[in-house]
TrEMBL record:
Record SMART domains: VIT, VWA
Boundaries of every VIT domain copy: 1-121
Pfam families named among the record's database cross-references: VIT, VWA_3
Protein name stated in the entry: VIT domain-containing protein
Signal peptide from the UniProt entry: none
Residue ranges constituting the VWFA domain according to the UniProt record: 273-453
Source organism of the structure: Oryzias latipes
Alphabetical list of PANTHER family matching this protein: VON WILLEBRAND FACTOR A DOMAIN-CONTAINING PROTEIN 5A
Amino acid sequence: LIHLFPLKSVEVELQVKDHVATVISTLNYQNKEDKPIEALFVFPLPGDAAVCHFSADIGQTHIVAELKEKQQAREEYDDALSSGQQAFLLEESEQSPDIFSLSVGSLPPGESASIRLQYVIELAVEADGALRFCLPAVLNPRYQPQDQKTVSLDMKTPFIIPASEIPYSLSFSARVSSPRPVSKVESSCSLEPLQYLNTDHTEAAVKLAAGHKFDRDVELLIYYKDAHQPSAVVEAGQDSAQPGTLMGDPVVMASFYPNFPESVQSSSSSCGEFVFLLDRSGSMDFPMADIHHRTRIDSAKETLLLLLKSLPMGCYFNIYSFGDHFEHLFPKSLRYSQKTMKQALKKVEEMSADLGGTEILEPLQHIYRQSCIHGQPTQLFVFTDGEVSNTKEILDLVKENCAAHRCFSFGIGPGASSALVNGMAKEGGGHAQFITDNDRMQLKAIQSLRLALQPSVEDISLTWDLPAGVSAKVLSPTIQNIFQGQRSVVFAQLTGQVGASVCHFQVTFGKAFYDQAFGLDQCFSTSVPLTVHHLAALTLIRWLEMEERGCEGEQSEGVKKKLVEVSVESGVSSAFTAFIAVDKSNNRIIKGPLITQELHATPLLSSCLNGTARLYITFVCLFSSFELNADSKPQFEDPLLQLVSLQEACGRWLLDPALAVILGKSRDEVKKAKPSKVSAWATVLALIWLHSSKVEAKKEWELIAVKAVSWLKTQRGTTQKKQLTICFTVKSVHFF
């Protein structure tokens, strides 16, 4: 029985250097019981964080933890408690790298303790160019597959604590620095005004507004001017480490932002197999934190509508949904047409969050068993709130099939597993998106679809022009896919005197060739010690973990041994190591029976047609301030989604009453205003409405507008073989 919650406050300091962040968290505990306690605190961390420091302060005593093989660390912890000593144990979940458990042992009555945890992380790039940092606050119960017999301690269902009853507070401050100016910092939480620390705006500081309850993830979006620039950070080795080792040699982190030629950027693929996998577990019925109070499943269904309407003609598609079992729309992917699209939309409309648990592995296995369609590269879109316990098994499966399938993942709502969502995109050569608070899922899904439609990469190579006697050992896995404007990072261990060296990043798209090069002597150094080394070590550790899971017997043990050595040497935690700290000062023995408390961080929770004969349609607020007819019953509250739902697969709109309702006119009024030489009047009107009334949402509807314009081009023969140009201007004449 839990009487009192010993965690009193959480202090977080964020230090961002360009696109690398160091996070220092301090957790303050107090035992208000009349007996010693052992507290187990289970909490989330980003799945790609390199945890590199753990220490504790008890009174005047400061204890720095050591990183050891996990079983050895557990035994030392148990021995310390048996001897009446204070001890602390920090370990990563073996099932999912985004869950950690902290054991605080033998905390005396009335005693306070401060736990300091430090990790470094490479910040993810959003589709709009922002760098995203997320401080997880919510750890939702992880679904356990039915055939998984054992459950580790940290996979237990957490206690659910209403947000109003969270007994601890959060203070959060961030300092940002970069060679490029910081343009702005945004957050889903209330922030104090951004403060610039120098005149060129390359350094800035921001704090979380007072009174914040740690009841949701803290998300920070950092925008730099001219962000998409290549860079390299060379970090010197540790003085105390042996030369020739990872920590003793310099390590380079090379970041590439491809900016491909216009010919490559403008050539989007008109083929492909698009497979949509939608989570229909019970948790998808939770509300989104938006003004419309839609549920996660409703927002996902609206997003599927927009994606289906935005698909190019000539592609193939299918829809899967899953819970504790899975369903699919077609036995195999079918060609995209008006008929198959209507079937899909009808199925999507009927979907609800009624399939139970979150068995994502089984539908993935079924998808990967399907034969690939020749000339149609498979693009997998996964929508989930990401609550599973077999994360590493799922990532292994995605990795095994990455040669034939790209994976784009979407984490919905607070608590979505960053390890699962980021991991699937990373191993599947795609892109990850997180939808939290007031984010529009439709916008982020279309951003990913644009990436999926980019030409596939045929060859990626990394070469080094190094002086004699200098070599580079690449520590990162081979880059499988890259996208225009998206960052790719490579870590390499350097031996010898680096001097003036050059790194080349080369990409081939069919006959197109791209080469991005920069000198390692023109780099800036990070001010936080061993940041790059820790990130490089984590990259190597994750690589070895995946290799170990694919081995058996002695080979597995050999890989595991190497993994533990890298982890201990670098001081970066892994699934097979843990931090252990024991207070041996003054030989103080704590007497009395221990009260064990399990504590979880889980609050409840435009295109134009060229031609000679031109029709100029000028337009201003005519359609923007319409009222719906009393007898009309639109399918969607959002008129944009209603318009999208009326578009046919080929890209055209038909002149029917539903379209007239959106325009605020009757069908007769629309027909009466139709020019005699325009046969595609309904499609023209739909495009005008989009350009005039929904400019702010252009990134969401631009792909469907491109389809509509492409269809209009095919209709030139119906306008007496004259070409038609539609120009959208601000001023208007009323043609109704």
